[in-house]
Amino acid sequence: MARFSIRDSWRTQSTGTRVLRLMLGGTWLYGGLQKASDAQFFNKGSSGYIGAQITGFVKNSPIGFILKHMIEHATLAGWMILLGELAIGIAVLTGVALQAAILGGASVSLILWLSVTWHVYPYFLGSDTAYLVMWIALFFLVRKEAPARARKSPIPNLKDRREVVQMIGVGVTAVIAALAAGGLKKKIPAPVTGTKIVDLSKFPVGSNMQFTAPDGNPAYLFRTKVGVFAYSAVCTHQGCTVGYNSADNTLDCPCHGGKFDPANGGKVLGGPPPRPLDTYKVVIQGNSIVTA
Ligand code: FES
Q1: What is the pTM of this model?
Q2: For ligand 1, atom 1: residue with the closest CA
Q3: CA 125 to ligand 1: nearest atom
Q4: Which regions of the chain carry the CATH code 2.102.10.10?
Q5: Rounded Cα gap, residues 288 and 169, in angstroms
Q6: In terms of Cα–Cα distance, which of 290, 269, 271 is closest to 281?
Q7: Which CATH fold would you assign to the domain 196-291?
Q8: Which pLDDT tens digit goes with each residue over 257-273?
Q9: Ligand 1 centroid from CA 83, angstroms
């Protein structure tokens, strides 16, 4: 039985395979760490909560009938996604159960393509489509370059104690990484009230402006005959910053064509965003418009 070596698993591969492996393994590892350190991911009241994200994708996804069963177990689903991404990233970078890890990564990309990216038009703007193709290409490259004995099946040999120990090592490392990244979580700031945004005299009815919300995110303020409204400028699809389109009086996302209606609660008018823009409470107080 040949000795397993992380170094050898890289050395025996072609440059093209290494580039794909580094990019995909690194991205999946980063994705898992980013979720683990995101204070919103498991926070039921926040817009970034995994349950809110899944709910948003149910309506327009061809696998919505599966996703809707995940909503009531959203926290469990969130942990599975987070640990799955970490384990796949670590396995791809170390070469442990490499072919199985690549198939796992392709499965995650396929699910994201069918949910998050399904309505992105044109298709080449959807990153999950590109990741899925990269995983498939990496799978065939790794199989071609693997020694004959490893080409028989991509499924790890569970009778081989060393392979099982290596996989357990990947799982334990993923859990430790998740806990370590969770420790770096920033607290969600409590809403700051009474912060002045603009003088009322400088902001007549019909005006709009961009400002920085108390949580640090870019936001838009609108004043109409009905009152004052503020929306987060963070697109609810994949987080790009929306901009005001004066021709249509909409907030448009430059990434995948999302369109929101500021006159109607930030409602989605088009594109892939699964839900309206988040809102901030603002009020007129004396001669100013302030956060509430
Ligand atoms: S990030 Fe995709 S439409 Fe805004």
Answers
A1: 0.80
A2: 238
A3: 2
A4: 196-291
A5: 58
A6: 290
A7: Rieske Iron-sulfur Protein (2.102.10)
A8: 999 999 999 999 998 88
A9: 26
